[in-house]
Each structure stands twice: as structure tokens, then as C-alpha cells.
Specification:
The chain is mainly alpha-helical. It contains three helices and no strands. It has a domain of about 60 residues. The radius of gyration is 26 Å and the shape is rod-shaped. It comes from Ancylobacter crimeensis.
Length: about 100
């Protein structure tokens, strides 16, 4: 007669079945490493963006009319927000690995 007792949780999988591969949620970078990499990318992004913006603002933007200057400064001043938002979204993505919960 079969027993109704559940098998222990640490038991091996039944014979003949391959071991389970980690799912997509269980693979990937740890949140700590992801945030470190994202922080480095953000610092580099801000420095490069600021230097590029200063170079454009001193050279080409000063020769434009007042309306175009306003538009150029608006785009150059706020344009870094889009790539930074993408990096930040990647940094805070929820990690479902059991050892990081």
C-alpha cells in the first residue's frame, strides 16, 4: 500500500529525469553588482554628456538665433535624462533569485 507521506524537500529528483536548469529569473547579476555597474555607467554618462554639451554650447549654439538657442539648451540640458532613466530602470529591476530575497 502506498504511503501518503510527502517526500522530504531535499530529496533528489526521480530517476530518469534531467536536473532542472535555472529559470531566466534565477540567472543574472545580483542586485548589488547591478547597482554598482549602473552607478559607474551613470557617472561616466554625466561626465561625458556635460563635456559634450559644453563643447557644443560654446561652439555651435552661440551662432544660432535666440529661439534655436533656447531649444538647443533645453535639449542639451535635459537630454541626459532619457539614457539615465534606462540605466536606473535596469539597476532597480526586481531580482527573483531566492538567495537575494
Amino acid at each position: 500500500m502506498p504511503s501518503n507521506r510527502p517526500s522530504p524537500p531535499d530529496s533528489a529528483p526521480p530517476r530518469g529525469l534531467p536536473p532542472q536548469m535555472p529559470s531566466q529569473e534565477q540567472r543574472g547579476l545580483s542586485p548589488r553588482l547591478r547597482k554598482f555597474i549602473g552607478t559607474v555607467i551613470l557617472v561616466v554618462l554625466v561626465i561625458v554628456w556635460a563635456l559634450g554639451t559644453m563643447g557644443l554650447a560654446q561652439g555651435r549654439v552661440t551662432t544660432l538665433g535666440a529661439g534655436w538657442q533656447f531649444l538647443a539648451y533645453l535639449v542639451l540640458g535635459l537630454g541626459w535624462i532619457v539614457p539615465a532613466g534606462i540605466v536606473i530602470r535596469w539597476m532597480v529591476r526586481f531580482d527573483r533569485r531566492p538567495e537575494t530575497l
